[in-house]
Design goal:
Bound molecules: FE2/S2 (inorganic) cluster
Cofactor: [2Fe-2S] cluster
CATH superfamily: Beta-grasp domain
CATH topology: Ubiquitin-like (UB roll)
Strand order of the largest sheet: 2-1-5-3-4
CATH architecture: Roll
Number of strands: 5
Distance between the termini: 27 Å
Shape: globular
Order of helices and strands: EEHEHHEE
InterPro entries: 2Fe-2S_ferredoxin-like_sf, 2Fe-2S_ferredoxin-type, Adrenodoxin-like, Beta-grasp_dom_sf
Structural class: alpha+beta
Strand content: 15-25%
CATH class: Alpha Beta
Organism: Leucobacter chromiisoli
GO molecular function: 2 iron, 2 sulfur cluster binding; electron transfer activity; metal ion binding
Helix content: 10-25%
Family: Belongs to the adrenodoxin/putidaredoxin family.
């Protein structure tokens, strides 16, 4: 499933292919995307996989679980469509999803 990451400075774009069923965070780490730290390995505990989902994609994602929602209140540079990349399962309907990486993580 194709995913597009825009760097925090807006200067570069990385397009990656994430295996079906992986999370967006797992795909980002596999491909070495800068700025997706993912300290907790996907447990929705660390908040260091924060991404700002482009608004046109936000409605296609499942609602955040309480643990994700709580972390999203304390991540740096939040926005209305902020999500944790480890809580985004990549499915075919997300083909081409675009997210912005914040300039800093927790
Ligand atoms: Fe830790 Fe997503 S990897 S919250």
């Amino acid at each position: 499933v194709r995913a597009i990451f825009h760097s925090a400075d807006g200067g570069s774009t990385d397009e990656i292919d994430v295996p079906d069923g992986w999370t967006l965070m797992e795909g980002a780490r596999q491909e070495g995307i800068q700025g997706i730290v993912a300290d907790c390995g996907g447990g929705a505990i660390c908040g260091t996989c924060h991404v700002r989902v482009r608004p046109e994609w936000a409605d296609r994602l499942p609602e955040p679980e309480p643990s994700e929602a709580a972390l999203l209140t304390i991540v740096p540079e939040p926005c209305e469509t902020s999500r944790l990349a480890c809580q985004i399962p990549m499915e075919p309907e997300l083909e081409g999803i675009e997210v912005d990486i914040p300039s800093t993580q927790l």
